[in-house]
Design goal:
Layout lengths: L7 H34 L4 E9 L3 E9 L7 E15 L4 E18 L5 E2 L20 E4 L2 E12 L6 E13 L1 E3 L6 E10 L5 E11 L4 E12 L4 H4 L11 E11 L2 E11 L5 E4 L2 E5 H5 L6 E10 L7 E6 L2 H12 L4 E6 L2 E7 L4 H17 L1 H4 L42
Length: 420
C-alpha cells in the first residue's frame, strides 16, 4: 500500500490560508472597520438600523440618519452599499472599490433672521499623533455614487416662504482619500430643480475639484426653468410678474489656489406677454425692443473672488444681444451702474457695462461649448428608473413645518431696481 505524500496536507493548508485569510478579512473585518470609520468621522452622531454582508465582499448598511435631525435640518440615507477592495492592518488603511448611497435626503433652512440651518456633520479627520484614534488611519474610495437623492430647501426670508427641491439627484465621483492627499476628484451630477408651484427643469454639472489646493473646474447647465418657480421672491419688495418667462443658463467655474473665476450665461425666453413690469407699470417692452424678432434676452455674469468666501464675490454683467445692450445703455444714461441681485442667500453687487459684437459672440460660443460637453448627461441612462422605496425601520427625518400658500401683502413704497 502506497503511503500518502507528506507534503499534501501542507499544500492544502497553504491554499486555505492564501484564500481564506483575505476572504475573511474582506468579508468580515473590512466592513466592521468601515462601520467604525463612519461612526468616527461623523463624531458618533449617526444611527444605523441594520448591517449585513453578502458574497463576495459587499457590505450593506440600511437606514442611516443623523441623531440630531430636526424639522429645519436633517440628513439620512436609505441604503449604503460598500464594496471593499483591500484592507491593510499594519497601516490601518481601507481601500473601497465602490460606495453607493441610495435615496439620501438633505434638508436645510434659511431663516427670517438671515441665517442658514445646516445638518450638523461633525466630520473628524484622522490624527496620526492620537493614541486612541480608532481602527482606521486612511480611507480610500475609488468611486462614489448617489442614486435618487433629494435636497430639500426652505427659505422663510421672503414674505411667502419659498420651498424648493432638487430631486432624482444622481452623482458619480472619485477617487477620494481621507485624509486628503491633494489628488483631483472628478464628478458628474444631474438632477431636477423644482420651485414654487411645481415648476421644474433639469440641471447637469461635471468637472473636478482638489480640496487641498482649493482648485476646481466645472461646467453646468440649467434647462429652461419658468421664472414663476421663484415667485415668492418677486412678492418681496417690488412686485415683479414673471408671466411665462423661462430662464436657461450655462456656466463655467474655475478656481486656482482659492481664486474663483466664473462665467454664467443666462437667456430669458418665452416672453409672450411682451413686457416686464413692476407693480403693473411696464419697465421693458420686449416686443418693441426686439423689433419683431424672436423675443429673448441674453447676457453673461462674470464672478470673481475667494472660492470659500461667497460674501466677498463681486460680479460684472455683460449684455448678450442688442435689446439687452439698449437696456443697459438706458440704465447708464440714468446713472445706474450697479444693481444688486440675490446669490447664495446674499445680495451681490453687479456692475453693468455695455458690450460689443465680440462679447456677444463669445457668450454664444461659450454656451454652445458647455451644451456639447454636457450632452451625454442630458440623456436618460438606459433602463434608468427610481430604486424601490425601502420600508423605514427607524424614525424618519422629521417633516418640515407646513408652508402657507396665502400671499402676504407687499410693502408699500417706491419702485426700485435693487433686489429684482
Amino acid at each position: 500500500m502506497k503511503r500518502p505524500n507528506a507534503w499534501l496536507p501542507t499544500i492544502v493548508l497553504l491554499l486555505v490560508a492564501v484564500v481564506g485569510v483575505p476572504y475573511t478579512t474582506l468579508r468580515w473585518v473590512a466592513p466592521q472597520y468601515l462601520t467604525e470609520a463612519i461612526h468616527q468621522f461623523l463624531g458618533g452622531e449617526v444611527a444605523v438600523s441594520r448591517f449585513s454582508v453578502s458574497p463576495p465582499f459587499t457590505a450593506t448598511l440600511l437606514l442611516l440618519r443623523l441623531l440630531g435631525n430636526t424639522p429645519e435640518s436633517a440628513a439620512s440615507v436609505q441604503r449604503v452599499t460598500v464594496t471593499p477592495r483591500w484592507l491593510s492592518l499594519p497601516k490601518r488603511a481601507l481601500w473601497v472599490s465602490d460606495l453607493q448611497l441610495e435615496q439620501p435626503v438633505l434638508r436645510l433652512t434659511h431663516t427670517q433672521a438671515g441665517t442658514t440651518v445646516w445638518p450638523t456633520l461633525p466630520l473628524r479627520a484622522p490624527d496620526p499623533d492620537a493614541r486612541r484614534f480608532g481602527p482606521l488611519q486612511q480611507l480610500h474610495l475609488d468611486s462614489i455614487g448617489v442614486v435618487d437623492g433629494v435636497i430639500d430647501f426652505i427659505d422663510y426670508s421672503p414674505g411667502v416662504p419659498f420651498h424648493g427641491l432638487i430631486d432624482h439627484l444622481s452623482l458619480m465621483a472619485g477617487p477620494v482619500a481621507v485624509p486628503k492627499n491633494g489628488s483631483e476628484t472628478s464628478f458628474a451630477v444631474r438632477g431636477r430643480v423644482i420651485g414654487h408651484g411645481g415648476h421644474a427643469a433639469l440641471m447637469y454639472c461635471s468637472g473636478w475639484v482638489d480640496p487641498t489646493a482649493k482648485d476646481m473646474q466645472a461646467s453646468c447647465q440649467l434647462d429652461p426653468l419658468p421664472l414663476a418657480a421663484f415667485e415668492p421672491y418677486f412678492r418681496h419688495g417690488p412686485q415683479v410678474r414673471p408671466y411665462g418667462v423661462t430662464l436657461k443658463s450655462t456656466s463655467q467655474w474655475m478656481a486656482k489656489a482659492n481664486q474663483l473665476n466664473a462665467d454664467i450665461q443666462v437667456e430669458l425666453n418665452n416672453l409672450a406677454e411682451g413686457d416686464l413690469s413692476i407693480r403693473g407699470r411696464t419697465i421693458v417692452d420686449v416686443q418693441r425692443m426686439t423689433h419683431g424678432r424672436e423675443p429673448r434676452l441674453r447676457g453673461s455674469f462674470h464672478i470673481e473672488g475667494p472660492l470659500d468666501r461667497p460674501d466677498q464675490w463681486h460680479a460684472n454683467f455683460v449684455p448678450g444681444d442688442q435689446p439687452v445692450q439698449l437696456l443697459i445703455e438706458r440704465l447708464l444714461e440714468h446713472g445706474i451702474k450697479i444693481i444688486r441681485l440675490p446669490l447664495f442667500f446674499r445680495q451681490v453687487s453687479v456692475q453693468i457695462a455695455p458690450s460689443g459684437t465680440v462679447g456677444i459672440q463669445d457668450i454664444d460660443a461659450a454656451s454652445r461649448e458647455i451644451q456639447e460637453a454636457l450632452e451625454i448627461l442630458s440623456e436618460p441612462l438606459p433602463g434608468e428608473e427610481a430604486p424601490p422605496v425601502l420600508e423605514p425601520a427607524v424614525e424618519p427625518i422629521p417633516e418640515a413645518p407646513p408652508i402657507s400658500a396665502e400671499p402676504s401683502p407687499a410693502p408699500a413704497g417706491p419702485s426700485s431696481i435693487n433686489g429684482i
